Amino acid sequence: MKIEFLNQPVTSIQTDLLVLGHYSENTKPQGKLADVDQALDGAISDLIQQGEITGKAKETTLIHTFGKISAKRILVIGLGEKDAFDQDMVREIAAVAVKTAIKVKAKKVASCPFGIKHPNIHEHHVTHSFAEGAHLAHYRFDGYSSKKEEQHQVELIQLIAEEVSDELKYGIECGTAYALGTNLARDLVNTPGNKMTPTHMAEKAIEIARRYGMEYEILERDEMERLGMGGLLAVAQGSEQPPKMIVLKYRGREQWDDVLGFVGKGLTFDTGGISLKPGANMDEMKMDMGGGAAVLGAMEAIGRLRPKVNVVAVIPSTENMPSGKAYKPGDVIKTMSGKTIEVLNTDAEGRLILSDGITYAKHLGASRIIDLATLTGAVLIALGDVTTAAMTNNEEFLADFMKSAKKAGEKVWQLPTFDEYKEQIKSQIADLKNTGGRLAGSITAALFVGAFAEETPWIHLDIAGTAWSNKETATTQKGGTGVMVRSLVQIAKHYGKYGMR
Ligand code: BES
Ligand code: MN
Ligand code: ZN
Questions:
Q1: Is this prediction's pTM over 0.90?
Q2: CA distances from 7 to 4, 12, 159, 472 (A)
Q3: Are residues 393 and 293 in the same domain?
Q4: Ligand 2 is a single-atom ion; what residues have CB below 5 A from it?
Q5: Consecutive 10-residue runs of the chain (501 residues): their mean pLDDT?
Q6: What CATH number does the domain containing 123 carry?
Q7: Pocket test for ligand 1, best of 276, 277, 376, 435 (most atoms within 8 A of CB)
Q8: Strand, helix or coil for residue 20
């Protein structure tokens, strides 16, 4: 799908779908919608009078033009109140426009639903959010049906603008990068476990590295053994699939000094291992590499946008399977950090592979670390599928991240990490145990992971509730959501602009 600019009177634009907007306080069509209204002999004024077009946010009214203007159809989208209009609304509206275009099989869309200039929003943020919403809405997973239905493609979106600046164009580039990174993460999550193996995940990472000239490193089992990565190795023991420690390095600065570390859980299928999960909905556990997928999606966008920041991406990847070789409850293992762990439940495997992921990220020079993981069912009880949970050992770092997430339009909420909770993961016979009981399950899981970050500023994002969705919205499909890709890219861009100190 291409997005370009167009400067032409609105009534002469040849397109399948012309998308225009209407604020809820307006009693008459304004601007371009007024021009169209005139050409249609007041048809739109009539619909407003009759209360069919109210301007309520995201309301849609489809009007056929029967040759009265060059556009085949007009979509009037409600913009809500002008004062409340913001970047998030632009993203939603672009998404609604694209979903409608798909429904009516429009190939060419022209739009300027709110004017490129709006007092609340910087103009390059308008084009950013528009491009982002459009590409997010256009996403569909290809699937594997033998009788493939052709999926309708919107080929071109023309944004109507009188003047085109480099800033406006950069906005489109950014929005496109954020969305295509997110869509890449969605593809990885939606790919079933028999295809999305650790080996395949590593191949996908190498593709990104090659596309953008990044360095990469894939550690195999023997190298993990040499480095003492007992956490990842223990989880991988029961699987026929070889584990991989996937590393990408993006150099945005001369010196490899300030380095942002992204560590993503790449558990390509979680059966629970010997502590086997119940059968119902176990298929959804193909999404247990959602953290790793978000990291790869972010690296794709970072490769496109080239911010002036160093980033190291680390993805410990394996399956968690029961077998005669599998690790067992009661086992004690030693991680790369030297810390020992008593395994009480083999289904609490994410924190074990992340322990080595975080230690390795530090070893590679990460000076701030964000880890992302579909880590606990408990986070679904706490925050549902709406909000990602964040925990940290450094409030300033989290404040930067929260701002970035807000800008990116992703919902994040902090949970506490008070020392009292650490009691729950102390073991009698090792440094830590891998379960902390029923109470505060997301927090004790985070603190377990944080024990390996030690003094390095660290944020943990539990995306078990948000990486997967069972409903469709304007910007998402059912399945993998690609959550947190945009927030990661946003904070990388922030540090690229303002530095990390
Ligand atoms: N991958 C799961 C967490 C999960 C649950 C992700 C639901 C997505 C949706 C994780 O490995 C897990 O099994 N966690 C256990 C930990 C427990 C055994 C301490 C859990 O949350 O039940
Ligand atoms: Mn598990
Ligand atoms: Zn898991």
A1: yes
A2: 10, 11, 8, 34
A3: yes
A4: 270, 347, 349
A5: 96 98 96 96 98 98 97 97 95 98 98 79 93 98 89 96 93 98 98 98 99 98 98 99 99 97 99 98 98 99 98 99 98 98 98 99 98 98 98 98 98 98 98 98 99 98 98 97 99 97 85
A6: 3.40.220.10
A7: 376
A8: strand
